[in-house]
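User: I'm new to structure prediction. If I give you an amino acid sequence, what do you actually give back? Let's try with this one:
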Amino acid sequence: MAKIMSVECIRTRKNGTWTIVKVTTDQDGLYGIGSASDIYNPEAVVMIVEQLLAPVIIGRDAANIEDLWQTMYMSGYWRNGALLQTAIGGIDMALWDIKGKEAGLPVYQLLGGACRAAVPCYGHAGGRDIAELKEDVYRFKEEGYTVIRAQLGGYGGGGFVELGKANVPSPSWASGSVFDEHAYLQAIPAMFEQLREEFGFGVQFTHDVHEHVSPIGAIQLSKRVEPYDLFYLEDAIAPEQLGWYRQLRTQSATPQAVGELFANPQEWTPLIQERLIDFIRVRVSKAGGISACRKIAALAEAFGIRTAWQEGGENDPVNQAAAVHLDMAIWNFGIQEINHFRPEELEAFEGHIVRRGGYLYPSDKPGLGIELDELKALELVGGDWKRSVYFNPYKLDRKADGTLVRP
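Assistant: Good question. You get back a string of structure tokens that encode the predicted 3D arrangement of the chain. For your 407 residues, that looks like this:
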């Protein structure tokens, strides 16, 4: 029996935007790591891990993962917040890492064993115009991807109008450009028409709406892209308006993927039970870790829904490893979002997930198979991670009249 002796957070990457949880046991050399990264609230997550959760699990048996998860879940009385779930998720991953190391097996073997030889993933193609986008799609095809996300620039791309060409009030609340839903609803179907003319139907495409449009706009878009046979349309409707997925389902057969912003089970459960979506896209750490996500996957399997765990460019290699171990063991897996890391970042995470062609391969080392080199992690952050401060640069888009656009 290995008892938990300490729980600490290690901040790394530039400005400490990655938070890695390290759970150490009383067994010599036995510890586990997990991801509790939150780019917008890193210090808040650290406080939850170290001040709320660590005191209630230190001294407990590290093997009792489910009981520890439930203990952490109820430890603060108020539940299902994104930051609390992230803190729980980081510790949960570390506990599975410990269990795998004790058993001498990779985590996916503990979850039931491999359902596939490797994990298919999709690339993120983008461009300021259709010519640049096509060039990027060709690049991903040559690298071996068969599923590619297509975006005209960033989220909402194709729907932005420069201030000089937009009818804005004076003074304008917007800067640089404004989002025009009508322009977006015209541009994206036209984009896919040109992509199909160029690439035929041998490539599968996804597209991320990122909740920029109104619910009725999401339905219109979903119907208009139907002829282009998307792999899925992502986050067409904001989580505040999930009831609209019922109307969308009756209007369009375009597959729907949703869940990037989910942390509360009451968000995804009705969508799965009513078969209103086709892919569930929660981030493993944000949903509460491996323990929570294997339950989501089991629920989804019962209703014919596939998984597509969310990653995002700000996420870390440990969360990616946890997602891929789940992907290996889950029968109703659909596709995995990929992250790209700089060489010096990967050097700090020995045993990281490897991509070859359009597939991801986990390490077969025990546990998550990934180890954090703390000295190299310190070099990445450029100083003491406990003193690192991150400034939120997230730019919120606005309409011509100044109204904010979700998310």
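You can read the tokens as a compact description of the fold. Here is one thing that stands out. The CA atoms of residues 398 and 405 lie 5 Å apart.
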